[in-house]
Amino acid sequence: MDGAGKLLGLGVGPGDPELLTIKAARLLRGAQVVAWFAKSGKTGHARRIADGYLAPDAEELRFTYPYTTEFPKRSDEYRDAMAAFYDDAAERIAAALDDRRDVALLCEGDPLFYGSFMYMHDRLAARYAIEIVPGVTAMAACWSRAGLPMTRGDDCLSVLAGTLDEDTLARRLKSADAAVIMKVGRHLGKVRRALDRAGLSDRAVYVENGSTPDERIVRLPDMPTDDSPYFSLVLVPTGRATS
Amino acid sequence: MDGAGKLLGLGVGPGDPELLTIKAARLLRGAQVVAWFAKSGKTGHARRIADGYLAPDAEELRFTYPYTTEFPKRSDEYRDAMAAFYDDAAERIAAALDDRRDVALLCEGDPLFYGSFMYMHDRLAARYAIEIVPGVTAMAACWSRAGLPMTRGDDCLSVLAGTLDEDTLARRLKSADAAVIMKVGRHLGKVRRALDRAGLSDRAVYVENGSTPDERIVRLPDMPTDDSPYFSLVLVPTGRATS
Question: Do residues B197 and B170 lie in contact, with contact meaning Cβ atoms separated by under 8 Å?
Answer without folding.
Answer: yes
